[in-house]
Amino acid sequence: MTRQLIRLRLRDGRLPHDRAVELGFGPGSGQECDGCGTAITARQAMTLRLDTEDWSEIRLHDECFQIWDDERLKAWQPSRESTPVKK
Ligand SMILES: [Zn+2]
């Protein structure tokens, strides 16, 4: 579910496709995750990134960051899943 949300945010431009600059890494501060939309608590790992497209800050759970990193790379490649295979 988180993956779908992140994919959606990549598509409508709320998350960058470019590899964002890493600003910091550490425990959360109760602020909203830009990936899944839920708060990042002090018990969770957070990565703070800088979007080089519009210089805005992005906060992500460590877990959401992994998904975003995975999905943004996939987004560049054309999907072949929807192409019907004729025999
Ligand atoms: Zn998250």
> What is the succession of H and E elements?
HEEEH
Mean of pLDDT: 89
Largest sheet: 3 strands, antiparallel
Secondary structure category: alpha+beta
| Small molecules bound in the structure, each named once | zinc ion
Distance between the termini: 34 Å
Which of globular, elongated, flat, extended, rod-shaped describes the shape? globular
Number of strands: 3
Helix tally equals 2
**Main sheet: which strands, in order across?**
1-2-3
How many distinct domains? Answer: 1
Please give the oligomerization state of what you see.
single chain
Approximately what portion of the residues adopt beta-strand conformation? 15-25%
Q: Could you tell me the radius of gyration in angstroms?
A: 15 Å
* Low-pLDDT ranges: none
Helical content (DSSP H or I, runs of 4+): 25-40%
Question: Secondary-structure blueprint of this entry?
Answer:
Blueprint: H1 2-11, E1 21-27, E2 45-50, E3 57-61, H2 62-76
Antiparallel strand pairs: 1-2, 2-3
Report on this model:
- This protein is of the alpha+beta class and 87 residues long.
- It has one domain.
- It is built from two helices and three strands; from the N terminus they run H-E-E-E-H.
- Strands 1-2-3 form a three-stranded antiparallel β-sheet.
- The model has no long low-confidence stretch (mean pLDDT 89).
- The structure holds zinc ion.
- Residues 33, 35-36, 38, 60-61, 64 line the site of zinc ion.
